[in-house]
C-alpha cells in the first residue's frame, strides 16, 4: 500500500514569521527582493578590527499587500545604526548645491525671514541649515548621531541630539520652536517608527507651517533597477500614494510634489495641516498619483518582476569582472557609499576583483568596506595605481565623477557603471 503523495515530503523552509506593516499594520508576507546577508552598510571597518567577527543581517525587503509600502524588518535597531554615523553630507559637491538651491527656493516661496523658524529633522552635519543661517533665518537641527551633530555645531548650526518623534516635537513646541518650515531630507526612509515620526511632524508644525520631505521614489528604484539603495538603514521604500495616505491618517495633506534627480530619483513632498487651506493642492499631486496608478503601484504584480532583474544584474557584473581579471586588467573602485556596500556584498565582490576604492571623506580613508574588506584610500591613490577600470559605486553622481576623473583617460582608463545596466564609459 502506498500512501497518497498529496504533500511534498519535506516542507519548504520559509522565512515568513509575522511582520506587521510599518505604516498600516496589515500582515506583511510578500517578498520584493532578498539580497541575502549583509553587514550595516555604514559600518566601515578600522584596520585594528579587520580580523574581528563582523555582524551580518538579512537584507530581505517585503511589500505590504494593503498599502504597498516596501519595507525591511527592523533587523537592527535605529539606535545601533545612527548612534555613531559615518555619513557626512558635506562631502558631496552636488548635494551641497542641492541644499543651497533648496534654501533659496523655500525662502522665496514661503516668505521666510528673521522671524521664521526652520527645523530640520536628521540635520546631519549642518550641510543644509548653514545656508539658512547665512540668510539670517533662525534654525534648529535635530540629529541623533552625536559625532555628526558636533560638526554641525562647529559650523554654527544649533543642533539637538535626539531622534525625532512626538516627544521631541512637544519639547520643541514648548520651547517656542513650532516650525514654519520643517525639513526632512532622506530621513523618512530611515525611521523605524513611521507613525510616530509623522505624528511628530503634525505636533511640531506651526499652524501655517510647511513640511517638506525628500525620499527615494520606489517607482524609480523598480523601473531603474536601483536595488543597491536597499540597506538596513532604509527601513521603508515609498511611492507618493503610500506617503499621501500615511500623512492623511495623521491629519496632514500633501499639497505639492516635485520629482528630483537626487539619489537616483527622489520625491520632494510638501505637506501642511489638513485644516490649513492657505496652501491649495497643486496639480502635480494628482498627476503623479494618476501616473503611479497607471504603472500599477497599487497591485502586487508591479513588484513581482524586480527580484529577477536584480539577480541578472549580479550575473552581468560578475561576468564583466571575471572577464576583465582573466584579461589581466586592474579594477579599482571609486567612492565608498552605502549603496556600494549593498552591491558588493550581494555580488560577493572582494579584493579578488576590486583592489581598493577611494573616497574623499577622511573618516572613511584608511578603513575597509564592511563585509568585503576592500581598503579605502584617498583619491590620489588612483593616479598612482593607473587602473584599467574604475568601478563607480555612487552611480547617482556618475556625471560629476567622470568629469572629475577625466585624467584616467591619459593611461587608457575606463569607467564602469553597474546600474541600471552595466556600462563601460
Ligand atoms: Zn501597509
How much helix is in the residues?
A: 25-40%
- Rg value: 23 Å
> How would you sum up the global shape?
globular
Unreliable runs, pLDDT <50, ≥5 residues?
none
Strand content: 15-25%
User: Numbering strands along the chain, what is their spatial order in the largest sheet?
Assistant: 6-5-4-7-8-11-10
Continuous helix count:
13
Question: Which class best fits the helix and strand makeup?
Answer: alpha/beta
Mean pLDDT equals: 92
Cofactors, ions and other ligands in the entry: zinc ion
Question: Overview of this structure, please?
Answer:
There is one protein chain. With 425 residues, this protein is an alpha/beta fold. The chain is built from 13 helices and 17 strands. The model has no long low-confidence stretch (mean pLDDT 92). Bound molecules: zinc ion. Residues 21, 23-24, 26, 64, 66-67, 69 line the site of zinc ion. Residues 21, 23-24, 26, 64, 66-67, 69 line the site of zinc ion (ZN).
Q: What are the SSEs and their pairings?
A:
Elements: E1 30-38, E2 57-63, E3 70-72, H1 78-82, H2 93-109, E4 118-121, H3 129-134, E5 139-142, H4 146-154, E6 159-160, H5 166-174, E7 179-185, H6 194-204, E8 205-216, H7 218-223, E9 236-237, H8 240-249, E10 252-260, E11 266-273, H9 283-295, H10 306-326, E12 331-334, H11 338-347, E13 357-358, E14 376-377, H12 380-385, E15 389-392, H13 398-404, E16 414-417, E17 423-424
Parallel strand pairs: 4-5, 4-7, 5-6, 7-8, 12-13, 12-15, 13-14, 15-16
Antiparallel strand pairs: 1-2, 2-3, 3-9, 8-11, 10-11, 16-17
